[in-house]
Design a protein that fits this description.
By secondary structure, this protein is of the alpha/beta class. It has one domain: NAD(P)-binding Rossmann-like Domain (Rossmann fold). It has a 7-stranded parallel beta sheet with strand order 3-2-1-4-5-6-7, sandwiched between helices. Helix 5 links the parallel strand 4 and strand 5. Helix 4 packs parallel to helix 5. The chain is globular, with a radius of gyration of 17 Å. The chain binds NADP nicotinamide-adenine-dinucleotide phosphate (NAP). The site of NADP nicotinamide-adenine-dinucleotide phosphate has 29 residues, from helix 2, helix 5 and helix 8.
C-alpha cells in the first residue's frame, strides 16, 4: 500500500479568505486552498490579488479578488458585510497580510510603530470581528494567523513587528478559548526566513548572517508555510487549537 494515500488530507469545499494573497506566502496559501476546491477570496492592498484570483479561475478553480487596506477598520467592516451577503459565511480565515518598518527602538517613529501594529495585528481583529458571527452559525471554522519567529523570540530592529506578531499569539489563544464551543479552531504559524519580496529587501550580508542561524541550513519556501496551513485547515487539523507552530528550519529552537 502506498503511504501517500494514508497521508492525504480531507478538505470539504468551503469559503476561504486569505489576506495578503497578492504575493509571497499569501499567494501560495490561496493557490493551495483553491486546489482543494475551496472558494478563495484573495485580499491585497494593491491590484496584485486580481491577478492571483484570475490565475486560480483560469485553472477551473474558484476565487474572487477584493482590494482593501486591511489596516482600515471601516474598509474591512464594509468588505466583510459584502462578503457575508454574497457567500453566507467565510469558514477558513487566513490572516497573512503584513509589513515591516525595521528600526532600532531609539530611531523608530510612532508612525513606524502604528503602521506595523495596525497592518499586522489590528487587521486580524478587524477580519475576525467582521466574519466570525456567520462562521459560528456554520459550527465549523478555522482561523489561522501568520506570525513570525520574531514574535516567538524577538529581534533587534523589529520591536513593532515582534510586538504585533506576539500579539497575534495572544489573540489566537483567546479566540481558541472563545470559539471552541462552536467547533472553530484558531492557530498561528510562525515562519522563519522565507524567500519572498519581504525578505528580498535585505542585504546579502544580512541574509548570510541569518542563514548561519538556521539549523536546517536553507531559507524556507512559501510552500513550506502553505503546507502547514493546509494541514491546519483540513478536517484532520480539527483537534488542534490555540497553538503557535514554528516553521523555521529550527531557528527558534
Ligand atoms: P510580501 O511578499 O511582502 O507580501 C505581503 C502581502 O500582504 C502583499 O500581498 C500585500 O499586498 C499584502 N499587504 C500588505 N499590507 C497590506 C494592507 N495594508 N492591506 C492589504 N494587504 C496588505 O510578504 P510575505 O513575505 O509573503 O509575508 C506574508 C506574511 O508572513 C506577513 O505577515 C509576514 O510578516 C509573515 N512572515 C514572513 C516571513 C518571510 O520571511 N517572508 C517570515 C515570517 C513571517 P500588495 O501585494 O497589494 O502589496
Amino acid at each position: 500500500m502506498s503511504t501517500k494515500s494514508l497521508m492525504q488530507l480531507t478538505h470539504h469545499p468551503r469559503v476561504a479568505l486569505v489576506t495578503g494573497a497578492g504575493r509571497g506566502i499569501g499567494k501560495a496559501i490561496a493557490e493551495r486552498l483553491a486546489s482543494h476546491g475551496h472558494t478563495v477570496i484573495c485580499v491585497s492592498k494593491s491590484e496584485t490579488c486580481v491577478a492571483v484570483a484570475n490565475d486560480i479561475i483560469a485553472k477551473g478553480l474558484k476565487a474572487k479578488a477584493i482590494q482593501v487596506d486591511v489596516s482600515d477598520a471601516a474598509a474591512v467592516a464594509k468588505a466583510c458585510e459584502q462578503i457575508n451577503a454574497e457567500f453566507g459565511a467565510v469558514e477558513i480565515l487566513i490572516n497573512n497580510a503584513g509589513i515591516t518598518r525595521d528600526k532600532l527602538v531609539m530611531a523608530m517613529s510612532e508612525q513606524d510603530w502604528n503602521d506595523v501594529i495596525s497592518t499586522n495585528l489590528s487587521s486580524a481583529f478587524f477580519w475576525v470581528k467582521g466574519l466570525v458571527r456567520p462562521m459560528t452559525k456554520k459550527r465549523w471554522g478555522r482561523i489561522i494567523s501568520i506570525s513570525s519567529v520574531t514574535g516567538v523570540q524577538g529581534n533587534a530592529g523589529q520591536a513593532n513587528y515582534a510586538a504585533a506578531k506576539a500579539g497575534l499569539h495572544g489573540l489566537t489563544m483567546t479566540l481558541a478559548r472563545e470559539l471552541a464551543g462552536r467547533n472553530i479552531t484558531a492557530n498561528a504559524v510562525a515562519p522563519g526566513f522565507i524567500t519572498t519580496d519581504m525578505t528580498g529587501e535585505l542585504s546579502e550580508e544580512i541574509k548570510q548572517k541569518i542563514l548561519g542561524v538556521i539549523p536546517l541550513g536553507r531559507f524556507g519556501t512559501t510552500t513550506d508555510i502553505a503546507a502547514m496551513v493546509d494541514f491546519l485547515a483540513s478536517e484532520e487539523g480539527g483537534y488542534i487549537t490555540g497553538q503557535v507552530f514554528s516553521v523555521d528550519g529550527g531557528m527558534a529552537i
